[in-house]
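Record format v2
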Amino acid sequence: MKNLLEVSDLSVEYRTYEGTVAAVNGLGFSLAPGRTLGLVGESGAGKTTTALAVMGLVPSPPGVITSGEINFAGRNLLSLPEREMKKIRGNRISMIFQDPMTSLNPVVTVGLQISEAIAAHQNLSDKEAEDKAREMLEKVQIPGQRYREYPHEFSGGMRQRVVIAMALACNPALIIADEPTTALDVTIQAQVLELMRSLKEEFSTAMIMITHDLGVVGEVCDHVAVMYGGRIEETGSLERIFDGPRHPYTRGLFRCIPDIEEKTSEIRPIEGLMPDPLDLPKGCPFHPRCPEAMEICRTVIPPVSDDGGHRVMCHLYGKGGEDRG
Amino acid sequence: MKTENMTLPGPKTGEREKRRSPWWEVWRRLRLNKAAMAGMAVIIVLVVVAIFAPVLAPKDPNQTNMKARLQPPSAEFPLGTDNFGRDMLSRIIYGSRISLYVGFVAVGIGAVFGGIVGAIGGYYGGRLDNFLMRCMDVLLAIPQIILAIAIVGALGTSLLNLMIAVGISQLPRYARVVRASALTVRGQEFVEAARAVGASDARIIIENILPNCMAPIIVQSTLGVAQAILSAAALSFLGLGIQPPTAEWGSMLSSGRQFLRNAPYLTFFPGLAISVVVLALNIFGDGLRDSLDPKLRQ
């Protein structure tokens, strides 16, 4: 199948007074229509910046996209003028933000916010946009009667459903969900995830799910990409990554999850902290924390080794690691 | 599809839809605020008085009567007469027309243009913001009354020019207030969310930035009306505003000043009228701000 979204060699920098933050470094991934990619990583790994780059919303200044291509449905988004991007945003690609408490305008009714999103892209009368917005509210299981209520009259989970309705309103080909369940409590998380999954199937929308929760990934994603220090360290299908993580960082992440069937007295966190993005280590960005770091890791950025779609960026699997078996 | 058998919390679907407009909602909450309602009642009374001045005024406000100069309040002249024997009550009633008109229109001019400048500066930031705000600083650096004198001096004396002058001299305050709140609103996630659904800058400013800046604009405006009335009065006193025979509170106040010792009612009543309007506007504005804030809605 032809890919809907293809990102290659994407690099984004934030030029601040303290120095240049290399947020994303030569990132590449692709996404087929209707599929879900889970973008996993710690805070500061560059997940949100990647999402904003796809939306064309990297805050500038200080953000600068220094290289790369983002091909969406055959067009390079990075070379499109702002006017064209506006037509794509919300219409073909839309975004769900992390905190539903702040991602809705507090002084405008939820219904109007949804119908505005529709009206921005479709040539509809006010009445038609309103009907469509009510329909979208019903889709996310909020009674259409609540069209004229304000965001503060909704609970957190309901607000996030309103945000989802807004994102889906123009039936986009791609939804970027930036930690959509982080601000919600666990039971509501499950409902929202379930809703997103069923709506995604109904509308056959592709989705990029940004999260640091591997549980969420396991629930909704087809593919997984693990980010660290602005790079994708490991990527592959959900099964491949979950059954046989290869990169030491990915393995470390899985060790952090307590197993419900095993009696674990303590979980083992990954030693150390995320590197300072102002001063990323030379070579593999993970080497200062890596239990299996070798001499070569300190100096050379590892090449990508591909094992039938399961790609790893680590010297253990490239030529550098062969002598270790 | 799994959607059908999923149950999510929410009100019963049979619930009657709220078909109220947001303004109805504001009104509902405003009604609960007794002080604000009192303020509004005073303003409404004054507006009605201003509109029906010819019907309500017992005498012609410009009719001089040399036999009855500087009369203290009496049955015939409830608020006394001035140094030309004109009936003070009639003059105050007629004066409310000019004072309220100047106050509201001048604030309208200041708030609309200042609001636009502030919202644009705050939203776009950077050099444009710098330029606009430095222009406002220039206006702010000149004392308000002197700026107004200069503008009226340049445009010539007329009621419209008076309002323009007072409006422009108030403009930087609105620009600053709106810019300050636009800066905080701009950083909110819902603005980014609006951008993510493809809204244009103009739409974001009108729908996201300005409504969220309403509270300080309203408070500033109610205070501003009071100040505009005073500024207009001061300009009239200097001969740059309302020309003498026309009744206006400010000019009545200042012309009564020279008879303060013998006829204090000449300054007392116009001064009282100004104070009452100012107080009523402030109380009302305060209540309006509370009821406009949807976060306080029950």
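Chain B has twelve helices and no strands.
Residues 88-124 of chain B form the longest helix (37 residues).
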